[in-house]
Every structure is written in C-alpha cells, then in structure tokens.
Amino acid sequence: MTRTVPANLRPSLPPHELDALCRQVRHFIDEEAIPREDMSKAHDIEWLDDVTRVLRAKAQAQGLIAPQLPKDAGGMGLNWQDCARVFEVCGRSFLGAGAMGCAAPDQPNIDTLMHLAAPSQKAKWLGPLMAGEIRSAFAMTEPAPGVGSDPRMLSTRARRDGDDWVLDGHKWFTSGAVGAAFAIVVARSDEGASWFIVDTRNPGWNLIRAIPSIDPFSNGGHAEVKLENCRVSADALIGDAGKGFDYAQLRLEGARLFHCMRGIGLAERAIEIAQDYCARRDSFGAKLSEHQQIQAMVADSHIDLYACRVMTADVARRLDTGASIRHHSSMAKVFVSEALNRVADRASQITGALGMCEDQPIAMIAKRLRPFRIYDGASEVHRAAIGKRIFHKGSIA
What are phi and psi of 375, to 5 degrees? Predict the structure, then answer.
C-alpha cells in the first residue's frame, strides 16, 4: 500500500548549506516570529490566523516556506533528516511552524492528500492548502463511547445514498477546525473505516464550539463538531473505502515524528531562557548558575535534548528510506514527549514564580508541550503496542 507519509528520496544538503539554512531560519524566528508573540492572545484563533498570514508572507519572501514539500510544489525540497533540523529551529516560536507552512494539522494533511487524493481533490483542496490560502482540519476523535485510543470504537457512520455518501456522527478535539475550509473526516462505512473530505460550508457540518484546551497558539484550535445528515458526493471519498485505519496509522507515524522535531526547539528555548535567568539572578550569596543543583538540572535538560535529537534523526533517516517507522516512531514519540516535558518542567522550576506566569514564554511552553504525551497516541497506549510487537516479533532493530 502507498505510504501516506512517503519517503523523501532527496539527497541531504551539504552540511555547510544546511547549517546556513538553519541560521537563516533562526534569524527569521528571532527577528520576525518571536517579537510578534503575544501571550495574551494565546487562545485567540482569529488573531493567530491574522499574524500567521503576515509572517507567512515574510517567510515566502525569504524562501522559507514548506521545508518538506518538493520544490515543484512550492516547497524547499528537503528530505526528512534535513527537515528535522529546520523544523526544530522554526519550532522555537509558537508562530514559527504556521509561518513556514509546516504546522499540524495542515502539514500531515498535505502529505496525505499528495499521495491519496484524486486529481479533482488535489485541484480543489490541495493546491490552495499548500499555498496557504486555506486551512484544514482532521476529524477522528469522538466523545465516549466513540473512538479515542481504540480505533475499533469509531462510531461516526457513512452510508451510501445513490451516488452520494451521508455522514452522521459526533467528533471532538477536531484539530484545526475553527476557520478551516475543509476537514478530513474518518467514518465507518460498510467496507470499514473510510476517509472523506467535507467542505465546512456543508449544512451537515455543525461546529458546536472551540473546546478550551491547555495548549496555546494552536492553529484552528480543537473543536467539537456534529455531522448531521452531512451529504457529500462520491468524489469526497479519499482513496479506497475501508482503508481508513491503514491511512490513519500511516498518517500518525509521520505526524508524531514531526511533533518531536518542532517540540525540541520549543523545549530548548525554555531551558535557554532559564539559563539566562540563572546567570543574572543572585541567591544565597551567589548566582543561581553557580549552585550545583541548578547545574545538574540544566545538564539533565541538555542530556534529554541530545537524546531527543538523536532519536528523532534516526527515525527521520528511516522515513527517508521508505521503511515503515511504526515501531520506531512510537518509541521516539514516547521518549521525546516525556523528555521535553521534563525539560520544560525544569525550566519552570529553575525560574520559580516567573516560570508560573502566563505572560512569560516558559509557562506557555510547558502548557504547549504537556498535551504531546497524549496527542497522536498516549504514552501508555504506545508502550502497550511497543511491548506487544516485541513479544510477537522479538527485538525490532
């Protein structure tokens, strides 16, 4: 079966070129993105769309759009190993990934549609999405007793009615839904789980609310949606009916890896802010940076970040070859999500009350990273799956 997150069969940039590109991205993030962050607007989706449009135009002018896309699709043409470096740098800012066209859920949705969508779907939806003219959403998760970690509990239904499909169901935590032009909806048909493109102007698509969630600066938020007699034409079906779970698994293999890439940059920024604070703050007759407990916390944070980078780079290398990364991306996702939370928590602890202030970056970084232990599969679910595969197949190199 065709992978929804394909191999990027492109050579890596020469090291000096990649280093230069990362410096260019870092300058863009430091000079354009971070200064536009406004912690008071962390959950203002309309403001986030507005500032993203401004930053995207600036990124476009500098040739810093869509590192993962082929050059003939308007991207930078990087392979996943090089993307890991660039995503990390752009991930330092809450606004970076959106500005550079590599934020979730659009980025994995683009990867999906590039390799599964019919020509008519690409013309109508994929082109404008890659150009940043519209946003998209991904609708899979449902309230209990619907699908959560267990895909077999999918309850949204898709039935044929003549040449059309009719969808009925209740979704929530639908990523990117507020302000999205379309959503990829996972529903159960007679053939099995299937994927559909739903225009959000469809009268059967009812956005109930943006769910207040802990993570700030989330493009399109996380919405509750009801599909009620939502009629779509036959060409709304993505790929083949009944293969939705296969598509979802392959989409998530890459999506969880890309979260690792972006999250490393954000956690690194948190500990750097904490280090700068320690170098200036006096306590008990010395700078905080001179206290061994602080030194140990900073050291442990850099050890965690180093391990995260090595793990992420290895899985990116595997993805570049076209190999399945299901097992390795699960291991990376568990380790990286938990390690990044440790780094952010140490940064908060080191900076004391300042690290608790929501008008400062560290507290917002901690809130942004916490859901990663749940999104794209909770750590506990991944550990269970990893253990089962090992007992079934033995050690998987």
Answer: -60, 145
204: buried, middle or exposed (CB in 10 Å: 19+, 13-18, 0-12)? middle
Distance between CA atoms of 60 and 104, rounded to whole angstroms?
19
Buried b (16+ CB within 10 A) or exposed e, 331-363: bbbbbbbebbbebbbbbbebbeeebeeeeebbb
**Encoding tokens for residue 190?**
């007679």
Residue 241 pLDDT grade (very low, low, confident, very high; cuts 50, 70, 90): very high
Q: Which pLDDT belongs to residue 395? A: 65
CA dihedral in degrees (37, 38, 42, 43; nearest 10)?
-120
What mean pLDDT, rounded, does the chain reach?
95
Distance CA 128, CA 365 (A): 31
**Token pair listed for 119:** 């020509």
**342 to each of 136, 322, 349, 362, how far by Cα in Å?**
31, 32, 10, 13
Single-letter amino acid code for the residue at 302? H
Q: Are 126 and 170 in contact (CB under 8 A)?
A: no
What mean pLDDT do residues 323-332 have?
94
Q: Which residue has the tokens 């007793």?
A: 145
Query: pLDDT (tens digit, 9 = 90+) per residue, 160-209?
Result: 999 999 999 999 999 999 999 999 999 999 999 999 999 999 999 999 99
Distance CA 217, CA 211 (A): 13
The predicted model scores a pTM of 0.95
Overall average pLDDT of the 134-149 stretch: 96
Tokens (6 digits) for 126: 């994929």
Query: Phi/psi of residue 161, each to 5°?
Result: -140, 95
Inter-residue contact 210 to 88 (CB < 8 Å) = no
Helical ranges in 223-378 per DSSP H? 244-280, 292-321, 326-350, 361-369
Own/partner pairs for 15-21, CB < 8 Å, 24+ apart? 18/82, 18/85, 21/86
What is the SS3 assignment for 155? coil
Q: How far, in Å, CA of 280 to CA of 286, rounded?
A: 10
Paired with 378 in beta bridges are: none
Tokens of 181: 């032009």
